[in-house]
Fold this protein.
Amino acid sequence: MTRRLPYLIVVLLILGACSSMKIDDFTGTGPDFRPETYFAGQSRAWGMFEDRFGNLKREFTVDLQGDWDGSTLTLTEDFEYADGEKEQRIWRITKTGDGIYEGRADDVVGIANGIARGKALNWSYDLMLNIGDSRVKVRFDDWMFLQPDGVLINKADVSKFGITIGTVTLFFKKGAQPKNASSDRRKTAA
């Protein structure tokens, strides 16, 4: 049995590689997702981070404001975590070809690379993540799927040294007002 173990491991690795999702699998699907269109203006997201064992570790909301100038999408993300922590990330996303994107942000190491086909977008990037008192470089494999009615589902595997350490799940709603905007409207209406 111990002589067969290496062969079994190789077979499992090959089968696992065969089942990986590919961005071209979504060519021709709809609704058509283009980040520069979807994220222009306001949107809101609700998300959570689960560790590799499926334990819920953090919940958060994100208010987004996007400005598309014809070549670059400047996307400001204001995070508010359930524990009260706040964080901001400003993306500068450039469309470099048909469905091809490059993104930069202060905490992104190098360049984020994205490809959109049909209703899907796949992002890959390294991010400096605050964990306790340390900053740790992690890898994000980010998949976004546009649904009818302006809902966008985002699932990202987070890894370190090729080992998955957790998963981020987000649900975006285009045009959703920021949390503070709704309370400001109530004040002016009173």
Notes: The longest strand covers residues 56-68. The chain has one domain: 26-177. Residues 26 and 66 are 25 Å apart (CA to CA). Residues 5-18 form the longest helix (14 residues).
